[in-house]
Amino acid sequence: MTDLTGSPRPSADAASGVRQLGLLLRRTMLGGLRTPVISYLFPVVVPTVLFLLTSQMFREVGLLPGFPAGGYVQFIFPSVMLLTPMTGAGYGPTGLILDATGGFLDRMQIVPVRLWVVISSRVAFEILRVIPAFFVMSGCGALVGVEFAQGAASMAGLLLLVALWAAAYSGLFYAVGIYTLNAQAPTALLPIALPVFFASTAVMPRALLPSWLRAVVSVNPFTYIIEAARSVVTGPLSGSTLAGGLLTALAVLVVSQGAVALVARRRLVP
Fold this sequence. Notes:
By secondary structure, this protein is an all-alpha fold. The protein has one domain. It has 13 helices and no strands.
């Protein structure tokens, strides 16, 4: 792994790298407090409002023949929970671009700070910023009747899937942002959440979708992550469904963050 200069330097030990990661993560999280609406409030407010509205507006849909057991509230909850990382996903990449174009990363050459530390601190931020939303959403879900089939174990499994999806989904925004070095590019990608979310089983089971949409749903990776989350929350827990969701999330993570590493080496390393 190279440092930000791309030239040979004495390698920092693991403890130094972890300390640098912690410092950069702290800087990013504190920076988010200066613009809390998009950094921290969007992942809480938008999915929570969407969940409360849709769970009540479409409650009767859960009574249709062929609808999964548990009703619509139980059905939509895992879907909207996985929407939290997708809300405000452009904030972190925009900050990294501003660091690159504003000279901050150039100053990091003096330390030196490894490139993997910079990227890892941003991925960690994407995960940590959705944790408050997770617990707010869980509380709202409990108020309207959501039940976790395995209690704390179900909550832990859902949180794991949300964290993996946060790291995986954000990679697209970082890759495009670093490649273009345009601070507006990540924000311009935000609408992509709509087709990803609605062209899946997020709001309706496969059996109730038109045939052409079922074909689209079957190739959307988000579908398999949602179905794994639904299995964890509502049950019965299916090992194959859970494995499929976890492997899909990991595959998207490897592809997206691999793209980030590739473009970062080309665009951020002198």
